[in-house]
Amino acid sequence: MAIEVIAFTAPALALFAMFVVWPMLKAIQFSLFKWKGFGPLVDFVGLKNYVSVLSNDVFIGALGHNLFIVVASIAIQLPLGIAIALLLNRKMRFQGILRTVVFVPYVLAEVIAGVVWFQLLQPKYGVIDSVLAAIGIQGPAQGFLGTPEYALWTVMVVLTWKYLGLAIILFLAGLQSVPQELDEAAQIDGASWWQTQWHITIPLLGPTLRTWAFLSMVGSLQLFDMVWILTKGGPANATTTMATFLINEGTKRSNYGIAGAASVILFVIALTMALLYQRFILRRDNESTDPKKARR
Amino acid sequence: MTAATMTAAPREDATPTRRRRRRTNPLVYFVALVLVAFTLGPVLYAILGGFRTNAQLAANPAGMPDPFVWSNYVNVLTDARFWTYALNSSVVALLTTAMVVVFGLMAAYPLSRYHFKFREPLYMIFVAGLLFPATVAVIPLFIIISKDLGMSNTWWGLALPQAAFALPMTIVILRPFLQAIPSEIEEAAFIDGASRLQVFIRMMVPLAGPGLVTVGVLAFVGSWNAYLLPLLLLQGNMRTLPLGVADYSSEHSADTAGVFAFTSLAMIPAMIFFLTMQRRIVGGLSGAVKG
């Protein structure tokens, strides 16, 4: 039996060890050396790279941007997603088409979506500036992506466009498991539609919302593609994320030690957040549902 | 306004649900319309933009194509690079998907149906993989693949790590699928003299079918849309479609209409795949979220 277990799991374990675990360990190793990618790994510098990453204003700014995106994504998409999912969950015409349409941005590659938005947001000649001009609003001279005060918010708008559909679809799927009888019972008792949703449906949607928020957090911490296409982290580092920082250090400047330290810090932050979230928020769901029953 | 109209209806009607079906609040349709405009607007603008000239775009950015110009799309479709990128994307996505499905199912099988000492620790190793952001490992991965393995700029050099990173999610989704298969079926087959391997191929593969489609679609879309790893590993003619779009956009920054045409055509494969597989993707995602 043992041989069979090994035979069945070996290919997956080998791939996983080689392309996930080994590079992770390498990242830790790099983080302890001052290495430019040539010759042997000899310049051991201990935790110096960590000190320089953590005292680097650009990295600290990037960390702030990631946290902003974590919070803003949830603050914007959660209420919007719930409201729209509740509306779309009502009997209406074109429901099937609507659900398909809502999901379109999510299916597009982030790069392709980013290129389209980059064109729409071109200063002056882009359609967004010209539509705004038509209603009397003058866009910033450098464009929304080129002006430090607006750039991060603009990225946030594009991210909302890209990921709101995912939230809506997941919430709609969650709503399928909310029993209709409860709704009907409450309405017969005289509760209004909004009262029913607020007191009955949304609380029952809890597990879906909490898991969605978790996925959203993890995604926000790793954000790279969209930022790289829209701004490359600029202007003046106004939209740098931890991921664009470490890619920049690793590929453009060949500072593998700094990139390694930044990636270990990113990993520790992601892991800490995941564990805290698991411990304090998701735990309720894990206790209350039998994992076998939760699946269809 | 909504609250008022909604409270009035159910009271005097014996079947509130049916009543609601007949009279949907106009507000619902208004919200739906705004949502569709917000969602599809940029995509439609890009597709229509491909039918315009740069002069048209500059003169009136918000206008319609007048007249319709086909040359942008023709130029992209007769550009050999477009087809090379599309071929690379397809091959890499197929290789990735095949490895994810086959190796994922093989690993999920003993993890769900065998009883052995290290089963749960072994499973936890893969679960922990969900917490490794690919971004974190990407620089060492780039060095390992290009310097240690000499596989940069090859289809396999990209497909192997992509499959590795897709495995944890695959195993987490597949394990409950296999666990749900009653053990009597297996036992009956053993009594009839079937070997482990026969049981695996003849019974587990078909019975896990829906789960396999879900993980396959997720792996395919993930690979098709990937950017960071291909960006580091592939150059020139080995590049995939998303990289091609990004390159085209920066190389032809003055040719907005051309960029729109290239981007719109690059959207098509994912769109078609999505429309045919939509229910699978949604089912798989909501299954994953519930887990």
TrEMBL record, chain B:
GO MF terms, alphabetically ordered: ATP binding
CC annotations in GO: plasma membrane
Keywords linked to the UniProt accession: ATP-binding, Cell membrane, Membrane, Nucleotide-binding, Transmembrane, Transmembrane helix, Transport
Membrane topology annotation: Multi-pass membrane protein
Any GO BP annotation: transmembrane transport
Protein localization: Cell membrane
One Pfam family, short name: BPD_transp_1
CDD domains found in the cross-reference section: TM_PBP2
Keyword Oxidoreductase (UniProt): no
Location of the region described as Disordered in the Swiss-Prot/TrEMBL record: 1-20
Ranges for domain ABC transmembrane type-1: 86-277
InterPro entries linked to this entry: MetI-like, MetI-like_sf
TM segment ranges: 27-48, 82-109, 121-143, 155-178, 199-224, 257-276
Family, as annotated: Belongs to the binding-protein-dependent transport system permease family.
Protein name from the UniProt record: Thiamine ABC transporter ATP-binding protein
